[in-house]
Every structure is written in structure tokens, then in C-alpha cells.
Amino acid sequence: MLGKVNHVAIAVPDLSAAVESYRSTLGALVTEPQALPEHGVTVVFVALPNTKVELLEPLGDASPVSAFLEKNPAGGMHHICYEVEDIIAARDRLKDAGARILGDGNPKIGAHGKPVLFLHPKDFQGTLIELEQV
Ligand SMILES: C[C@H](C(=O)O)C(=O)SCCNC(=O)CCNC(=O)[C@H](O)C(C)(C)COP(=O)(O)OP(=O)(O)OC[C@H]1O[C@@H](n2cnc3c(N)ncnc32)[C@H](O)[C@@H]1OP(=O)(O)O
Ligand SMILES: [Co+2]
């Protein structure tokens, strides 16, 4: 069911500082900030030869990242995104297996303009999983 790692996400308290660190200190190519109000985050992507790293900071009052940053004030690894070919088939299989699909259970459009879903970290080794249909 799982395809490639699409991205690994790091929640950060200050996106500009994180971008500067990745650009200047790590010498990476970083995209321009993209506000995603429907997800409650502003994101950039660090382009790597084999995958991407998503840096995200909270946007708005009800951001899903706010509680995480309260517990991890310096930032930290937030989720891993795996590619799937058919997100509805993947969701239904996971639901049947008893995994919790976050939100209303329906895919939203993610940062790449494609459908995404999130799975509860307590169901998967303490790691928040995002699925993206490619
Ligand atoms: C769009 C873009 C894209 O790529 O396209 C994105 O990625 S958007 C990325 C942002 N969007 C999302 O994250 C959406 C999905 N996330 C969520 O629905 C929520 O953040 C959530 C349900 C994972 C956690 O919600 P919450 O923080 O209110 O809940 P709690 O604080 O009660 O957390 C419940 C338990 O899960 C743990 N927990 C919370 N967040 C994480 C995480 N990221 N990784 C691992 N564990 C986590 C908490 O420590 C706690 O454990 P304990 O009880 O042991 O202390
Ligand atoms: Co993501």
C-alpha cells in the first residue's frame, strides 16, 4: 500500500529562522512560504535529491501544530508522509484495521495540490502519519 516517502515534516516555532538555517547553514534549496489556512500551518519545502523536508509553523488560532510546539518549544519531527496510489482504498483498509483517521475522515487537499489524510500517532508507533495520493 505504501509508496515513497514524500516528505518528513519538522514543526518549528519561527519559520523564517528555520528557512535561514536550512538555506545559509545547511546550503539547501528552500521553497517560498505557502500559507495553508485549511490545515492551520504555513509551510516551506526543502528540496533534497531523494525526498523533501517540510518545515511548518502554526497559522491561526486552531493550528494542529500549536500543542506540539508547546511540548517541544525548540521544534521537532512532526510527521512522515508516505505516498499511496489510492487514498480512499488506503483509508478504508486502515479503518477496517481499526486505525483512527484524523479530522472528518475525508481527504483534504495538501500542500502539493493532492489529497492527504492523517493517521493518529498512537496507532503507529508514536508517529503521526500523513498519506498523500500521487
Ligand atoms: C498540509 C501539509 C501537507 O504536507 O500537505 C501538512 O503536512 S499539514 C500538517 C499539520 N496537520 C496535522 O498535523 C493534522 C493532523 N494532526 C492532528 O489532528 C493533531 O495534531 C493530533 C491528533 C495528531 C494531535 O492533536 P493534539 O495535539 O490536540 O492532541 P494531544 O495533544 O492530546 O495529543 C495526543 C497524543 O498524541 C501525541 N502527539 C501529538 N502530536 C504528535 C505528533 N506530531 N507526533 C507524535 N505524537 C504526537 C501527544 O503528545 C499526545 O500524547 P500523550 O497523550 O502521550 O502526551
Ligand atoms: Co505534511
TrEMBL record:
Pfam families: Glyoxalase_4
Catalytic activity: (R)-methylmalonyl-CoA = (S)-methylmalonyl-CoA
EC top class, as a word: isomerase
InterPro entries linked to this entry: Glyas_Bleomycin-R_OHBP_Dase, MeMalonyl-CoA_epimerase, MMCE/EMCE_epimerase, VOC_core
GO molecular function, one term: metal ion binding
Domain VOC as annotated: residue spans: 4-134
EC number in record: 5.1.99.1
UniProt entry tagged with the keyword Metal-binding: yes
CDD domains: MMCE (cd07249)
One BP term from GO: L-methylmalonyl-CoA metabolic process
Record bears the keyword NADP: no
Keyword annotations: Cobalt, Isomerase, Metal-binding
PANTHER family (alphabetical): METHYLMALONYL-COA EPIMERASE (PTHR43048), METHYLMALONYL-COA EPIMERASE, MITOCHONDRIAL (PTHR43048:SF3)
Recorded family membership: Belongs to the methylmalonyl-CoA epimerase family.
Protein's name according to its UniProt entry: methylmalonyl-CoA epimerase
